[in-house]
Here is the input.
Amino acid sequence: MLKAVIFDMDGVLIDSEPLHYEANRILLLNKFNIELKYEYYKQFIGSTVKYLWEKMKNDFGIDGYTAEELKLMADEIKEELIDTDGYEQIEGVAEFVCGLSDHYKLAVASSSYLKNIKRNMDNLGITDEFEQLVSGTEVENPKPSPDIFLEAAKRLGVKPCECLVIEDSKNGVLAAKNAGMACLGFINPNSGNQDLSKADYLFESYEGIDENFLHMVHAHCFDEPYIALDTDRLNLREMQKEDAKDPVCKELIKEALNLENITDTDLEKYIIDYRNNSYKFLGFGLWVAQLKESDEVIGIVGIDRKVNGDFELGYFIEENHRRQGYAYEASAEIMDYIRDFGLDSVNITVKKENVASIRLAEKLMFDEFYSNDEYIFMDKKV
Here is the structure.
């Protein structure tokens, strides 16, 4: 279960990398006549300032100054730039953090110095939203080692598997995954062309994500139950590999996905693939319908993408629970839910003798567009 969200700072909470790069570039050019290329500099994004200057001192053959002295000179330039222009805020981030603090333990885990973390959080007005502020200078190894995130989890009093990290750099993502945590990668153009492929999910704007999205990312990472939708009487949750062992659930899944002859082992693998290919990339699929009062599985309902690219509404209700309005209750909620996914239309295929399903489709405002001797094909514009 997700209990804590850990934020990197630079590039995630504040758009700091352009200013840091500019301060370092000015110092090297004015003091040593060295031109700092961004392609070279971006390798340090997500690592510590100490590591940055030790490596640059060695790579550029800078003598007569320690890494700490170089850092202090760059800091002076950076402070002047901050006083003049300040850090550019990332749109929507303050509101996003405030919306999470009532639900999860929050921490900042940044390679920056602690005083800089505190100052930047104060400037954003969100310092009090975080239980812990952790600096990379307080741990032994920099990112991509997991030290800083493990320390944040320890201070929050949670297990690594109960954490989700938000990062914008390759090193940061690797550190989160090395710590055994779920990771959400923020695509920040100012962080350079970062390889975020190891993140569980990617996002481009804080305005497009919320608490439910974080819960889904974490659930997918650790194969935990995730309730995608609910109605008055039902919870609609994603399928899990454990469903392949449940007698009622596995038979409903086989029926819904036309997998009558599949073995339990192969069904488990199929469900894992379905989670990765439907829920993760489409954001929807066929869900397991459970009664809220008892958690009893009563059916499979949802939108399935067919081989030809069409999207089809399906409802498969266990025999003892038919004619009680569950299919309509779930389907109406699903059709409302998918309006934000950019689909043109959704289809239903119904056997001609299945009068109840035809009436349900008509109640949902589906119209017939084709029929043959056995089936009626209906669709609805979304």
The domain at 227-381 is CATH 3.40.630.30 (Aminopeptidase). The CA atoms of residues 161 and 222 lie 8 Å apart.
